[in-house]
Amino acid sequence: MLDSACTSYPSSWRQIPVDPPSILLRAVELSEEELNDPREKNSHANKPLIKHVEECSYLARLITGKYGLDERFSSALCALHDIGKLRPAWFLGSGVGHSREGAAILSSIRRELGEELGFSEGEMDLLIFMVKKHHSSLRADDFKDYRALSWLRERKEDACLYADAFGAFKIADFASANEMIKDIELMLERKWPSMEDLRKIIRGLDEGKWRKQLELVSESNVDLAAPTGWGKTYVGILKALRDMPMKLFYCLPTITAIRKMRERLEGMGEEVGEYFYFADVDLFRELGEGSDEERLIDFYRLFLPKINITTVDQLILTLVRAGKYHMRRLFLRDSVVVLDEYHLLPAPMIGALSKLLEYYRDIYGMRVVLMTATPLETYRKALRGPLNASSFDLTEEYRGLRRHKFSFIGRDEALNKLEELYKEGKRILVILNTVKEAINFYRKVEGEKLLLHSRFTVRDRLEKEERIDSCRILVSTQVAEVSLDVSFDALITEVAPIPAVIQRAGRVNRYGREAVGTNVFLMEPPSSEPYTDIELKYSSNVLSEFHGELESGEGAVLRMLAEYEKLIRERAENEINYWREMFEELLEDHIYSKNIDETEVLRELRGDPSVLVIPLEYESEVRELMSKLKQSSYLERIKIYSRIKSYLVPLSLRNKKFKSYVDSSSDLPFPLVKGLSYSEELGLHEDAA
């Protein structure tokens, strides 16, 4: 009940409250506790609780209306989530909790309030559970929570609707607490650019391809295989401009690819959200000190922009209900999702995606565009089947291309060949299979050179990527295989699995028709790392057999891929099926957040046992930043964490010397590396002998 300062409702009250402030006031009156007046008590700085409820309900109503969610349930959450703050013991800065306290108040009036709201017993159980968890993930605390929500176990679609209504409320709650209502409203109301806007940013537009692309995107779900340089990049964007969904999610395999895509899309005048683990480092680097747009990282993290570029990792974590999934998953409703270069994903990740797309296909109305330049039928079948996607195989166009002439050279010839090509004024791309070999080769190179691999801090890597277009010699690893919309004159590469070699060659003479002389030089690697002995031996044999045929057309690419798939098919199918089953089990309860280690899950899916480490050279900087965290505001903490992440470097657990490199006694949040050196030029490396 309200304290003496609050007026009571008329005795005639028996109707379902029609607006959230009324719901809150009625709940306070029903309670036998002595609660403060929500019209007078501040829930946030200079904001009474009733005002916060009004702001929440306004934005939540906008979101639920757009996405066809349960406005009734979302409104009740807006009204009641902070009722625990009305206990006299709670006040701003008190440190007293309010989520569980609010759930306790609602539990004491659940029958009467449920009747007046028109909620079933199950809905009241769900409402109370969500009030209790509204500052955390939707993980069940105990068996009581599981039992209370057991009625949703066989109701997948309803569970998704309730969870997404909770997500709409949480977006609104977050926006009101941080004075972002208007910003998010404007973002949600943005319109799509026109197809003419897209035509303007396509370099050397081919009208024949444009007509073919228009034909492709008329299908609901699309499975597209086409040669490198064909223009697949724009098919997903065109699909969104044609269908005008709520949002576009463009999923790419590398950070380099994400940044390049964002630059293209911004050419249409559209705000583009960019989210991956290091997105905050990239954003704050671009904004600089003193910018008033620092909250953009929250918008991007929550998938609020019309166009979102992200990684497959983020898509999987959202759909499998990791962490606070509810604040992002709802925006995948009525969306177009593009999976570009999906052949680069390991089989376990293909299996996970296959099950997730199957699970959400119908109830979320997602339209999916699958795109690859090196199609493996095992992967295509796993993804295409659950979507019932229309297949467009344009790889026959490889037969009309003569962009590459291959030749094998000895390792001892590679440096001389590079010098020869350099003197001829050519731009050369060199790709080695390991970071160690890339660094060793780079040290021997003279000229205008650039080194790029995975063991740089993200800050240094971003700066290097900006120099790729103008560099004469790029020495790199697998990070240069995909989505670099640049064209070198020649490639020197170690033998790798066939799809990787094709992707590497796709960075050479990218837009040409016929190679005049040899422009792809292959050499045997000193070891099979990071691949298997059998993969490299098989690839070497296939390349030796078919590379001469490329002079009469790149149709040999298709035969090489077919031969490679014979090697990996059985293993890939087994891994795909295993992870489909694993994710089916993870999804079966339909609503709870998963109690999983996100980093470990992604590590298993990728088969990449890397961990983020702090180079010894940056220990003092990280310690200084850590010392500032406790006294910092929310926004300041975001910036501090971003700066800490800017010093991190991935290091593989497969490294035989990993244990000797890592200081296990360090009290820092990430392992400290003492056995390796770091420089902006070379990255994390062993000192030269």
From TrEMBL:
Helicase C-terminal domain segment(s):
417-558
GO BP terms: defense response to virus
Q: Which SUPFAM superfamilies match?
A: HD-domain/PDEase-like, P-loop containing nucleoside triphosphate hydrolases
Q: What GO CC terms are in its UniProt record? A: cytosol
The name this protein goes by in its record: CRISPR-associated helicase Cas3
Give the highest taxon in the source lineage. Answer: Archaea
Give the molecular function GO annotations. Answer: ATP binding; catalytic activity, acting on DNA; hydrolase activity; nucleic acid binding; RNA helicase activity
Keywords, comma-separated and alphabetical:
Antiviral defense, ATP-binding, Helicase, Hydrolase, Nucleotide-binding
InterPro entries documented for this protein = Cas3-like_dom, DEAD/DEAH_box_helicase_dom, DEAD_box_RNA_helicase, HD_domain, Helicase_ATP-bd, Helicase_C-like, Helicase_Cas3_CRISPR-ass_core, P-loop_NTPase
Give a yes or no for keyword Kinase in this entry: no
Q: Which residues form the Helicase ATP-binding domain?
A: 213-393
